[in-house]
Design brief:
Number of helices of chain B: 16
Helix content of chain A: over 70%
CATH superfamily of chain A: MetI-like
Structural class of chain A: mainly alpha
CATH topology of chain A: MetI-like fold
Strand content of chain A: under 5%
CATH superfamily of the largest domain in chain B: Periplasmic binding protein-like II
Distance between the termini of chain A: 43 Å
Number of domains of chain B: 2
CATH architecture of the largest domain in chain B: 3-Layer(aba) Sandwich
Number of domains of chain A: 1
Oligomer: heterodimer
Distance between the termini of chain B: 69 Å
CATH class of the largest domain in chain B: Alpha Beta
Shape of chain A: flat
CATH class of chain A: Mainly Alpha
Structural class of chain B: alpha/beta
Radius of gyration of chain B: 25 Å
Number of strands of chain B: 10
Largest interface: A-B, 29 and 32 residues
Largest sheet of chain B: 10 strands, mixed
CATH architecture of chain A: Orthogonal Bundle
CATH topology of the largest domain in chain B: D-Maltodextrin-Binding Protein, domain 2
Order of helices and strands of chain B: HEHEHEHEEHHEHHHHEHEEHHHEHH
Number of strands of chain A: 0
Radius of gyration of chain A: 24 Å
Helix content of chain B: 40-55%
């Protein structure tokens, strides 16, 4: 049997990748293309008719003031969350790989918040912010104090805090793997050459862990940009719609306001923004990667 | 060669297994989300219930129905937005046979998919059926009204005398009562629910409804001609809202006050008044109920045709899916179930006694077990209802809910609120109906 013929290669591919490709097409590619088609219609999400409207939905999406406000909010939320998640995750990973007593217990403990679903986590934190913190604040101040969730900045702070708490443990695991991949002999060699521990960390360990940073930052950026579950259960857009993130705005447009075509167009714009930022970050990050 | 055949077989088997796994995920029954259409022969149909608090009772009723008629009714519910959930059912070409939706959905969903029920016997037994283009499409499950909930026990406990809601005719009466309660030791006698649906779709909505021609008023809002600051009804209702705010037990939390705490306060008699409706009965029962809790019209310093009336009407409408996805036999089975629900003793008991709802059917004389519902029933029987206005745009409650929340939290003035409401309507495409 000739191995360099096209039919042989196709057969081989189908043998190993056929099922996966078919499923990938069925659940990702086809819905994605169909979704793009829907952005050119004024479908309400229910009707059997999907009137074609050309690029009207994109024009409306670009003119949708509330959408861009939500997008701006999402950027602010993402910047703070991504930085805090990664700083905290790195610090935790350093802590649980430095040989402290019971480090496996700590690893498990810090990872647990990630096992709680976003919806449940949001409700738990809502209880903490609305009841526990209010009760403590009232006891200290001597009079009723409003919940943090009642002010726009407070709600944003709560969202960031809950997200950092959720994701830091997950990213910590990737950083732990990064720390463990750096050979002790390299750090020792640096120390012998006169490096202080912080210099060894800055000049040896961190550069060799670059791929962990690239992965963690990519994961946290993409997750923060499309946040919905915590947003829904913790603030539901309150107060005064000033904590509505881009994904929630998209959902509201498509389903609550029954403007599916426009919601889909806004979702596509969100996808492109998210993809451009994510891919740029990965490309920039990969460029400087070093091999041990 | 044999080896290659084996591989081919393996690929085939794996593909098949994957496909099976996917179909298994897609299908399947169960009490909550999921589900599909009926059997096609009218022997097994599906029902979507959007009142999750009566889900278990509904399932029990379905069992009784099956015992009597042999027709299986699978009852589903979803925590998702009703229209979003039903959209997924239509997208998957497997809608429920019978769907419980809000009145405004009958004009959109029902209009597109609803089966004509004009010839059903129940139509003559109610004043609350919804007709679109001369076809009866909406079957009312209950009557729901909005007003000020009061806790009689709490007021009696504070003042030492029975409370007569008829004594509160104007806002001045209401304010005097609040002052009396404060003087008697009740720190804050009122509470306001914070969600946008309560503030905009229920409270603000009264501004449109309590007038001779709500449609003309809404049209004037669309055209940007209405001036709310000079509108007597708007000001009267907002004056009442100010008083509710002034004595609000949850003033510090404002629109962020949790529903559970507001309901608990009313249920246990920690406050005396709250704007709400009869659907809150189940929420009140969740706590250490110390009632009775009743309902009275929102008091206003404006004497007009709507003084002394509750706003409300038919609610939670059923439509039978008449689309190509539901067979004729299933449609007939669906209609027969609704007829049974309206006319059989079991159906009447289910609505008024088991679920404590106010029946929209004249022939239903089973006493309502819901304290608030009992009062609503009196208003219904006396014809003291102001009808609902059901043609708001879909984003009305959430967008104007935000503005009402600002007003509740003193984050905007009444002028700013009025302007925001006018701007919203003027920038919105009129709803066709």
């Amino acid at each position: 049997m000739k191995r360099n013929t096209l039919s042989y290669k196709v057969k081989q591919y189908l043998m190993f990748g056929g099922v996966g490709t078919a499923l990938f097409c069925a659940v990702v590619i086809v819905p994605f293309i169909y979704g793009i088609y829907l952005t050119f219609t004024s479908w309400d999400g229910v009707s059997p008719n999907k009137p074609f409207v050309g690029i009207a939905n994109y024009v409306a999406a670009f003119a949708d003031h509330d959408y861009w406000l939500a997008m701006g909010r999402t950027v602010i939320y993402s910047v703070f969350s991504v930085v805090l998640i990664n700083v905290l995750a790195f610090a935790l990973a350093y802590l649980v790989t430095s040989g402290v007593k019971g480090q496996n217990f700590f690893r498990a403990g810090f990872f647990i918040p990630n096992l709680i679903g976003g919806i449940v986590l949001g409700y738990v934190w809502k209880f903490v912010f609305n009841r526990a913190f209010v009760a403590i604040g009232t006891a200290i101040a001597g009079h009723d104090v409003p919940s943090l969730l009642a002010s726009p900045n407070g709600a944003m702070f709560c969202l960031i805090l809950a997200s950092v708490w959720q994701y830091a443990g997950y990213m910590m695991l990737i950083y732990v793997a990064g720390f463990m991949s750096v050979s002790d002999s390299l750090k020792e060699a640096a120390m012998i050459d006169g490096c202080t521990p912080s210099q060894a960390m800055r000049n040896v360990t961190i550069p060799l862990m670059r791929s962990s940073f690239v992965q963690c930052i990519f994961l946290s950026i993409t997750r923060c940009f499309v946040v919905y579950d915590v947003n829904l259960s913790l603030t539901k857009g309150d107060p005064y719609g000033q904590s509505i993130m881009a994904a929630m705005h998209v959902y509201n447009t498509a389903f609550t306001y029954k403007n599916y075509g426009m919601g889909q167009a806004e979702a596509l714009i969100l996808f492109i923004v998210c993809a451009v930022i994510g891919i740029t970050q990965v490309m920039v990050g990969k460029k400087g990667e070093v091999e041990a | 060669m044999k080896k290659s055949n084996f591989k081919k077989m393996l690929v085939l088997v794996l593909s098949f297994a994957m496909v099976l796994a996917f179909t298994a995920c897609g299908g399947g029954g169960g009490g909550d989300e999921g589900g599909s259409g009926g059997s096609g022969d009218g022997k097994s149909i599906t029902l979507f219930n959007s009142k999750s608090e009566i889900q278990e009772d509904f399932e029990n009723l379905a069992k009784v129905y099956e015992e009597q008629t042999g027709v299986h009714v699978e009852v589903y519910y979803s925590q998702d937005t009703v229209s979003a959930h039903l959209a997924t059912k239509y997208a998957s070409k497997a809608p429920y046979t019978i769907n419980m939706v809000d009145a405004k959905d009958i004009y959109s969903l029902g209009k597109q998919y609803g089966a004509d029920m004009s010839d059903m016997a129940w139509v003559g037994d109610t004043d609350y059926a919804i007709s679109v283009d001369d076809k009866v499409l909406g079957f009312p499950t209950c009557i729901e009204c909005r007003g000020i909930l009061y806790n009689e026990a709490a007021i009696k406990g504070a003042l030492g005398e029975d409370f007569d809601p008829a004594s509160i005719k104007t806002l001045d009466d209401f304010k005097a009562m609040c002052d009396k309660l404060v003087a008697a030791g009740m720190d804050a006698p009122t509470a306001i629910l914070g969600p946008d649906w309560s503030l905009a779709a229920h409270y603000l909505q009264q501004v449109y409804e309590e007038r001779e021609d709500p449609e003309a008023f809404v049209q004037s809002l669309y055209k940007g001609e209405a001036d709310l600051m000079s509108d007597a009804k708007f000001n009267a209702l907002m004056d009442t809202f100010d008083v509710l705010k002034e004595y609000n037990q949850f003033k510090t939390q404002g629109s962020n006050a949790e529903d559970e705490l507001v309901h608990q306060a009313m249920s246990e008699g920690k406050d005396a008044f709250q704007f709400g409706g009869c659907w809150e009965w189940n929420d009140l029962l969740t706590y250490d109920y110390n009632g009775p809790v009743g309902i009275m019209p929102v008091p206003q310093n404006l004497e007009d045709d709507y003084t002394g009336k509750l706003v409300g009407g038919g609610a939670k409408y059923f439509y039978v899916d008449g689309s190509e996805y539901t067979s004729e036999a299933d449609q007939e089975a669906g209609k027969a179930f609704l007829e049974w629900l309206a006319s059989s003793d079991e159906g009447k008991t289910f609505v008024s006694d088991t679920c404590g709802m106010v029946s929209p059917f004249k022939s239903n004389t089973v006493p309502c077990t819901n304290d608030i519902g009992k009062v609503v029933k009196e208003y219904v029987d006396a014809g003291l209802l102001v009808p609902n206005y059901d043609y708001d745009p879909d984003d009305h409650y959430s967008k104007l809910g935000i503005e009402m929340k600002k007003y509740l939290d003193n984050a905007c003035t009444r002028e700013e609120l009025a302007k925001a409401i006018q701007d919203y309507w003027a920038s919105t495409t009129p709803v066709e109906h």
